[in-house]
Amino acid sequence: MRRVGLILLAIGVAGFALASYESGRYAPPAEGSLSGPASPPRARDAWEDARWLLTGTAVMGAVFTALPGRRE
Fold first, then answer.
1. Domain boundaries in the chain?
2. Helices 2-25 and 41-66, interaxial angle, to 10°?
């Protein structure tokens, strides 16, 4: 289980970093800014959902790594 935990932890952390970066790209422009129209909220919401899902994956990986179970 420890190997599975490390894999899940790596996927969760890498995915969280990617989703955080992508979510930041869809941030609404500042008030009074001359930039283009704001992106649709669906794109940002999808990346926010991915961040939470990948956070859960990383936590599961940490648990599987720290508590690998008993050997029989």
1. 2-26+40-66
2. 160
